[in-house]
DNA sequence: CAGGATCCATAAGGATACTG
DNA sequence: CAGTATCCTTATGGATCCTG
């Protein structure tokens, strides 16, 4: 039996896509602001101290860096190690769970490499059509 | 020649991870708010009208829906078709470029399925350690 | 050094009402 | 129906100062 497009569209009216969309949960976890640069840095360059991260990310403020690191630690994606010395030393490294995101990031890189140019082109064409032809 | 961790960390100080992180460009394109539910819906249920989308997404307001649809159209991920009738009819469908995100979404779903529970568990353990043991 | 606390600017998003 | 326009609330991030 073939499911028609109309049947699928009728069904669409009964689901809540925020819940139905199965990737929604990841967004808050790995794609909050600053999280990908942090994870990427820790994955590429290994364990780093707080100040190292701040220098590496460059445009992030200590407050926001702290917030994001806490969230990532709470979600189990990074590991925070506190060394009780004077002055104190704290090191962050990516966890196994964090490393499990690698294939995902790889897929993303591939998409960027293959399709970002197409997006740029689409934008130029869209913007070029400033004299709206119809229906705007 | 083996690149040491220290060498890599030293190098990290000289790059700008916002630019170095190769997936940064995708975030604004496909992971802006509401974009994944929209793309997911159009990909799953096919072409839909404005009101259908609004009913499907349920908690989105027309203003925001319009904004997101414009952005997706500009980026070439969806196609907008205007039918000059009375009342007017507008249909949205996913483009080939938008469909090229399918493997990405699939990878995401897999990660969610396999690892979301671990995140939940990490959160509970983190929250359970309210009596901060050290370094907080 | 690694942050916590505080205050402030900006902007994204929601609610509501209205139009071609 | 498919949006626009307007107003307003809230969330996010930046700047600054301070501390164990």
From TrEMBL, chains A, B:
The keyword Methyltransferase does not apply. Residues 21-120 form the HTH hxlR-type domain. The keyword DNA-binding applies. Keywords: DNA-binding, Transcription, Transcription regulation. This is Winged helix-turn-helix transcriptional regulator. PROSITE patterns: HTH_HXLR. SUPFAM superfamilies: Winged helix' DNA-binding domain (SSF46785). Pfam families: HxlR.
